[in-house]
Amino acid sequence: MYRYDALDREFLTDRSNEFRHQVARRLSGELTEDQFKPLRLMNGLYLQLHAYMLRVAVPYGSLNARQVRRLAWIARTYDKGYGHMTTRQNIQFHWIKLRDVPDILDALAEVDLHAMQTSGNCIRNVTADPYAGATAEEVDDPRVWSEAIRQWSTLHPEFSYLPRKFKFAVTAAKTDRAAVKVHDVGLILHRAPDGALGFEVIVGGGQGRTPYVGPTIKQHLPASRLMSYLEAVLRVYNRHGRRDNIYKARIKILVAALGAEEFARQVEAEWAQIDSPSADLPDTELARIRAAFTPMAFETLPARSETFELAKGVSSSLARFARNNVKPHKQPGYAIVEVSLKAIGQTPGDATADQMDLIADLAERYSLDDVRVTHAQNLVLPHVKLDDLPAVHAALAQAGLATANIDLASDIIACPGLDYCALANARAIPIAQDIAAKFADPDHAERVGELKIKISGCINACGHHHVGHIGILGVDKKGEEFYQLSLGGSGAEDASLGKILGPALPADKVADAIDTLVEAYLKVRDGDERFLDTYRRVGLEPFKEAVYAHADQA
Amino acid sequence: MKALTANRLSDGDVVFWNAGQWVERFGDAQLFDDDQAEAAEAALAAGKAQPLAAVDVYLIDVAPVEGGLAPVSYRERIRALGPTNEPTHGKQAEGGAVVEALRHASGAARSTGRVDLIRRK
Q: Which numeric CATH code is attached to A134-291?
């Protein structure tokens, strides 16, 4: 992973000291709340319902064991013994005291972590494919480019006060595990027919109140020209983005208003004005960053592990885990292991300090000191030898971390919702728990197959409900929690926005409605077709009929 | 009936106003009857005048429920109790009659038996 040098470390220490002084000035009354709020937000510190919440940046979802241990220590020392993985591959702590934050930032800086730009109207933490450096699908390592964007965008003087927040996602694989089409800017690394590395640039996707699947504004941007082109995109947005209306301030509104073609034309015109040698990444700098992501010291192993095959033969739980949570690795004899934070009844995305410590141990021992956070709120051990899978599975199982449900109906994305969040209208976590309980029988869950259920407690859509195969949006109806269901969304390479099924349901009817939707799907499913594909084939009506017909008879 | 609430500056904890001071328990909150609107507004002003003690100061509606009193809105009941997914976290951990009344209110306010609302368009 990227290794901080002395300059990087000095920068983090300075930043932490600066915030320590700002907190002291706030607590002594030198700064008013109005003056302090933007400063704390720039350091990822929110005031939520019960306490402050600190969102720690996990650049492109990548951590080493030492960092994971430090996060566990922070959870134990300053929080209630757990952390929450977010849909932007970050981790947040929900019970933070303002007076402790300077010490926490120091503790993070010691392990090259920080909370900068996890909030505020700036370029946020860059997200990327959590299988980067491990999947055979990728044409290049997206972490190299994500790191370059991170360094370029951190405290960028021109882009620190944008009309609204700005989110990048990067992938280099055809399978999209980073939701690149619903980000302000999505980048897909690819190779042109002549072998040249370049980016497909997607601008103006997003979720929230006004969701869009982003249009591609440039089919092939030569990789070496990335920074100047991004500068042009940000400049056009910074100039014309709506600062008068917070609901219309995201770049997606500008792109939709101008039209993708006109937006692209303005970007090209701006790009032509930029002095590219000074804006683009020098080859030496790219090489420096790339060196930090040199291929791991993989062993030469046979593609098939007899140890693993034998163990699978005698353990049905290992076999199930292998079917659902173990993914192919580019290196023969290795696998990518998804660690589900969605045990039935658990809060989606929460990991206890003890669980984090275990993950750190396993990463060190079995995964070349590498851990990833996924946007689906799970963890990944990206480089596990097939020979070691039985041991890794056993250790995970002991810690309640071996739920074999990746991308199944109980692998639900849920935002913290009204249980924690000051913006939420309704709770998301208990709804996720109710639904997961319906799929507690793992045979049933596997029979149903891939089904991505995503729940947001408000229209801001942190729970990605617009792109759920089944999306659930919490709304407040006269002081009561109601939930609007939508079908047919996808945040993957086949991105689409869900369509609303019908009137919102009360909280205690949601899990039953999901059950009904699944039963309706199983009735009309063609072979082993996914829920999403069945929906795309038969449309909304059969599902609508199934959920609402019964109510009419009541 | 109203109560005054805020979050404490130093740690973000939910606090309630009682006679010039911020207290941690909803059960200890000063209540303003509907005919005491002026007193409630005066408390609001006094609370806002202590910017080093608490932030986001506002009045909430409170109503009788079985076993005691509870904030009318769901959000405020969660603030007074703690998150519903972690029953040992936050103020609810202490237990007692007030917490039970608040929890009961949660149940009562949830929509149950309102299948009539689910209709085909």
A: 3.30.413.10
